[in-house]
Every structure is written in C-alpha cells, then in structure tokens.
Amino acid sequence: MSVKPPTSPACARCPVALGASCCEPKEDEQLATLTRADVERITAHARLAARRFVVEEGLSEQEAADYETRRPLYRGYFRRGPVRLTLAMRAGACVFHERGRGCGLPADVRPVACRLYPFERWPDGSWSVQMGRYGDLAEARAGGDACLAVEEAESMEDVLATFGTTHETVEALGEQLAAEARAHGRG
Ligand code: SF4
Ligand code: SF4
After folding, report:
1. CB-based pocket (< 6 A), ligand 2
2. How far is CA 141 from CA 16, 47, 66, in A?
3. Mean pLDDT for the chain?
C-alpha cells in the first residue's frame, strides 16, 4: 500500500525561518531510517545503486533494542542484527535534497519515514508530532530538531490541517512503515 505523504506550505519557508529543513540535519541529528522496501523503491525509480544513497550505521545490541522501544513502528527492524540503514548525505543535506526545491524524489518514492515526518506513534500507541514545540522561532532555530509547521501550530489538529492530512492517512502511513520494518527484520 502506498499512501500520499503530507506536505505543508511551511516546508517552503522552513529553511529560511529555521536555518535548515529536516532534510539538512545538524551534526548530532539523523536522517530517516530506511527499510529494504524503501531502498528497492528508490533504486527502481532513480536507477541508482544502493551504495550511492544508503549508509549503514552499526549500533550496539542495547542501542538497537532502545530504538525499537522508543519507536514502536520499527519493532522487528533489528531482528537480523543491530545495523540501521539511513540516507547518505552530501554537503550537509540528504543526497536527494535539492537546495531551494526540497526533495528530488517523487512523493510516493520517498522513504516512508520521510512521508510520515513529523508525525510519530509513541510507545503508548498515541500519535503526536516528533518534537516538542519551542514556542519561539529563535529558540527553535537554536535548539535543533524543530519543524516550522509544528512551531506555527497550536494543536495536533492544526498540524494535520497544515499538512492537508488526516489521522486516518497518518495511521495508514504508520501501518505501512510498521509492516515494512517487520519485513526488513525478516530479511
Ligand atoms: S521541518 Fe517540518 S516544516 Fe520544515 S521542511 Fe521538514 S516537515 Fe516541513
Ligand atoms: S529522501 Fe527526500 S524527504 Fe527524505 S531526507 Fe532525503 S530529501 Fe528529505
């Protein structure tokens, strides 16, 4: 199942307002975790070998267990070993990021984690947005991990509205990610 990802008008203003978008992480931030299904979709679309856009990050067994505990959509991801696949970077941004234009991949080819961002399901099963609201753009810019759409929203309903999406769509994307993460772990 492929679900149309949310996009927000805030994404176009984000790099100026916050200094960088979520596709241009700070040094201690990470890009999306990839499943094998993400890699296959991107390889088929871009006709690009996986080694050109995938980075393997080795974790300890404890780090992998903690990752799955904090992010229930990834349960089963590390079943075959504590290696996280993520997107390679070039000049401080994801290899698919085009300055001033955003993601160079079609919406339905992007990693599911990118399509879901900034929505996340927590260990108690509830949905929220990935980062706390700073409430002040200067603080958000300095603090990292910020999302302009979240900063400008007053509630979860506001965030859904600005991305033109619904709880149901976010839930469906979450189900897709959970299924692909489990399949990733089965190898
Ligand atoms: S951080 Fe939020 S507002 Fe900025 S580009 Fe990403 S999803 Fe859009
Ligand atoms: S794949 Fe696209 S949306 Fe995801 S981090 Fe890279 S540029 Fe951003």
Report:
1. 23, 31-32, 87, 94, 96-97, 103, 105, 110-111, 114
2. 10, 36, 28
3. 90
